[in-house]
Each structure stands twice: as structure tokens, then as C-alpha cells.
Design brief:
Blueprint (H helix, E strand, L loop, with lengths): L18 H7 L3 H27 L3 H17 L3 H15 L6 H26 L1
Length: 126
């Protein structure tokens, strides 16, 4: 699942890597399915928390929610998603509000791509 950069000639990292989950379940596809479902549910809740904290411009909650997202994304080696979450975490930590909504939109779009891919993985496990 490699994407190409806009130039079309360089590879970039895949959206995520299920290797860590696969190692945990030792080939058990039902357990893998469960891990993916829990991951998606957890990420969904964290995204909602982040959206609400951005709406309220609550810097400490932005930092906390983005930190949770970063950790979850890192577990799946969803590097691009983790990087955006880190940027939001730093914005919250430093009480930076300029560009906050735009950065949140970038994160939401990236998460939608990861979520779509994970749902495809789930359909293959059925």
C-alpha cells in the first residue's frame, strides 16, 4: 500500500503498518479484527475530543488529545498521522491558535484515509 508523491517518481511511507498488531495476535485473524475495531473506536473518540477542544480553544485539552492520537497512530506506524498529531500537540502546548483549524482539517483528512484502509483490512478478514 505505497502511495506516490505528487511528482510520481518517489515512494512515500504507507499510511499505516499492521505488523505490530499481527505480532500481538500470532496469526489469529479474529483477534486482529478485534484489535482493529478497538483501534478505530479509540481513535474516533480521541478525534471527537480533539475537535471539541479545538472548538473551545482549550490549549491543554488540545495538547492532551493530540498526544493520545499521536501515540495510537505511532503504534500502527501511521507516521503521517502521528506527525500531524504531534504538530497539534505542540500547538496546544504553546497555546498557538493561528492555523489550528486548518491543521485539524489536515489531521481529519489523513485519519479518514487511515480509517478507510483499516476498514478495507477488516473486510478482507471476514
Amino acid at each position: 500500500m505505497k502511495d506516490k508523491k505528487a511528482s510520481g517518481d518517489e515512494s512515500v511511507a504507507p499510511l499505516y503498518d499492521l505488523t505490530s498488531f499481527q505480532l500481538l495476535v500470532d496469526g489469529d485473524s479474529e483477534k486482529l479484527k478485534n484489535y482493529i475495531l478497538v483501534f478505530l473506536e479509540s481513535m474516533g473518540k480521541s478525534i471527537e475530543e480533539l475537535q471539541e477542544s479545538v472548538k473551545q480553544i482549550d490549549s491543554s485539552q488540545i495538547e492532551f488529545s493530540a498526544h493520545k492520537l499521536k501515540g495510537s497512530a505511532s503504534l500502527l506506524k501511521a507516521t503521517s498521522l502521528a506527525d500531524i498529531a504531534f504538530e497539534l500537540e505542540e500547538m496546544g502546548k504553546n497555546a498557538v491558535v493561528d492555523g489550528l483549524n486548518e491543521k485539524l482539517e489536515v489531521l481529519l483528512n489523513m485519519y479518514k484515509q487511515v480509517e478507510k484502509g483499516m476498514n478495507k483490512e477488516l473486510s478482507l478478514l471476514d
